[in-house]
């Protein structure tokens, strides 16, 4: 009784928030053209993506940094990509943070790591995005904008960072998000760890002798830590599901149970004509970093 009253109140609040954040239909249409992996075959999925995007815009705060000017198209593009992973999980998975900071391009972050002798080594890391527990989520607009063009390579900075947000929901960035009742931590780690170790070996082999070993399907950055592997393979799961399904079928199956989506089937079939405009791949995708 109490629960249904509470649920009804929440539903009314959500409806009001969604109504407040109307997205002009032509802007939404342009967003789906620019980022085709957002399209959903089923009408109810497409409607839910739009509803969650509007709700996300109501709940989160966007801040521009580095002289960037944010417009509606930019915040809608970020919001729509951010909610894709939680289409079935629900937006409450992102309740732990509010702020999103958008920079014009990649950001240099000063890192300091102590070595075995206690000496601190400082270096600069180039970040396309960063997620911290409690937020904010930082994104490079240049990389967000490239997501449509680079989807076939499984690259997506927004999904990468929001996969980290999901991973950190339990307080730990360890590649294990809050799991549904049907997936145990043991099962999750068995699959993720095995796929990760296979991937690390493939990256090492390709680096050692590129002539004899094909480049792995996923970004090599995923070999840097298991939590990065979770984020990198989640990018591919949504941006280029066929790529992940053929390279890491067990991981694809595990992710489809966790995200409760099957993007390889949920996306409408790709159009036969190539993108208008340049026709070729555009600027070289030169090892973008996930952060
Ligand atoms: Zn990362």
What would you say this structure looks like, in words?
The chain is of the alpha/beta class and about 290 residues long. The chain has one domain (about 15-265): Collagenase (Catalytic Domain). Helix content is about 45%, strand content about 10%. It contains 11 helices and 6 strands. The chain has a 4-stranded mixed beta sheet with strand order 1-2-6-5. Strand 5 and strand 6 form a beta hairpin. Helix 1 packs across helix 3, helix 3 crosses helix 4 and helix 8 crosses helix 9. It is globular, with a radius of gyration of 19 Å. Bound molecules: zinc ion. Zinc ion binds near residues 164, 228, 231 and 290.
Secondary structure elements and their pairing?
Layout: H1 2-20, H2 25-34, H3 43-59, E1 61-64, H4 72-83, E2 99-103, E3 107-114, E4 120-127, E5 129-131, E6 137-140, H5 141-145, H6 157-167, H7 185-208, H8 226-239, H9 241-247, H10 249-258, H11 263-266
Parallel strand pairs: 1-2, 2-6
Antiparallel strand pairs: 3-4, 5-6
Bound molecules: zinc ion.
Zinc ion binds next to helix 6 and helix 8.
